[in-house]
Design brief:
CATH topology of the domain at 237-335: Serine Threonine Protein Phosphatase 5, Tetratricopeptide repeat
Family: Belongs to the PPR family. PCMP-E subfamily.
Shape: globular
Strand content: under 5%
Distance between the termini: 61 Å
GO molecular function: RNA binding
Protein name: Pentacotripeptide-repeat region of PRORP domain-containing protein
Keywords: Repeat
PPR repeats: 5-39, 65-99, 167-201
Length: 335
């Protein structure tokens, strides 16, 4: 190329950013003799895995459009920083920049993370008063997910039932919302309705329904879905699926079955699954099994004081004071 202009420079920066090569994108961005809005936006959007850098670049940008604001809000939402996302949204609002549907979807995702009913109602009301097309599938799906997870189940159900065509995502949002808010049996009924509508559940859908069964103590239903997932849908259980089943069995007092399931796993179980079983050992006073489980946790997370505390509590409940003292000493040494 005999002459490079801002368009060609920007094309290279955007190309690198689109494939996630932010080192080269940054190198080219720094070398640019002049920068336009597109190059700034490409860099901000590409850096959302590192929100401190993305925010710093956003603050330096001489001009900000809806794409830049949206990239920052979406980035905070994806990185589990909902409070920062809300701050950016309110700052954007104060500058009379009107959000598009993509920013509102990100904001609803943020609200679902926070779980605030009042915030959900405010976002819902704001969206209804805006000019954004509320009939778009991704907007409706986000509305259902937000309202369900924040406990506004009547609103979520209304939106869900009014959908011209319900999909796996909308069903899972409703099932998860019902599960979170103590309606496990209703969640199971909705999952069965989904199957009757001939929708094919995926790994995520089975994680959602197994978690619902765990929260509700529905051992029979959870066991059925776990077997159905393997035998009918040929889905190999993931560590998350096993963790749900271990939690379900542990909560219902079937500690030996939970232990056997953990040992049958073809992959290393999550520490959280062992932790759920250890917590159940404390609840049901299972000293011998608690010792075995605790030793496994000490290997996986030697600096996690929670496992030591649980085992010492098991010993205390059984009035095994010498063992209690030994565990406490080990905790002080390692943690």
């Amino acid at each position: 190329m005999t002459e490079r202009n801002v368009v060609s420079w920007t094309a290279i920066v955007v190309g690198y950013a689109n494939v996630g090569d932010m080192d080269n994108a940054t190198r080219m961005f720094v070398q640019m003799p002049e920068r336009n809005l597109t190059s700034w936006n490409a860099m901000i959007g590409g850096l959302v895995g590192d929100m401190a850098s993305a925010r710093a670049l956003f603050e330096k940008s001489p001009e900000r459009d809806i794409i830049a604001w949206g990239a920052l809000i979406s980035g905070y939402a994806q990185n589990g920083q909902p409070n920062e996302a809300v701050k950016i949204f309110l700052e954007m609002e104060s500058m009379n920049v009107k959000p598009d549907e993509y920013i509102m979807v990100s904001l609803m995702s943020v609200c679902a993370q926070v779980g605030s009913l009042d915030f959900a109602k405010w976002v819902d009301c704001y969206l209804c008063q805006s000019s954004i097309d509320k009939g778009q599938t991704h907007v409706i799906a986000a509305l259902i997910d937000m309202n369900a997870k924040c406990g506004n189940m009547d609103r979520a159900k209304k939106l869900f039932e009014e959908m011209p065509k319900r999909d796996l995502i909308s069903y899972c949002s409703m099932i998860q919302g019902l599960s979170i808010h103590g309606c496990a049996e209703e969640a199971v009924g909705l999952f069965n309705r989904m199957l009757n509508e001939r929708l094919i559940p995926d790994e995520a859908a089975f994680t959602v329904i197994l978690a619902a069964c765990s929260r509700g103590g529905l051992v029979k239903e959870g066991s059925h879905y776990f077997e159905t997932m393997k035998n009918k849908y040929s889905i190999v259980p993931s560590p998350d699926h096993y963790a749900c089943m271990v939690d379900l069995l542990s909560r219902s007092g079937q500690l030996k079955a939970a232990f056997e399931l953990l040992n049958s796993m073809p992959v290393e179980p999550h520490a959280s699954a062992w932790g759920a079983l250890l917590g159940a050992c404390k609840l049901y006073g299972e000293v011998e099994l608690g010792e075995v489980v605790a030793r496994r946790l000490f290997e996986l997370e030697p600096k996690n004081s929670g496992s030591y505390v649980l085992l010492s509590s098991i010993y205390a409940a059984a009035e095994q004071w010498q063992d209690f003292a030994i565990v406490r000493d080990k905790m002080r040494e390692r943690v």
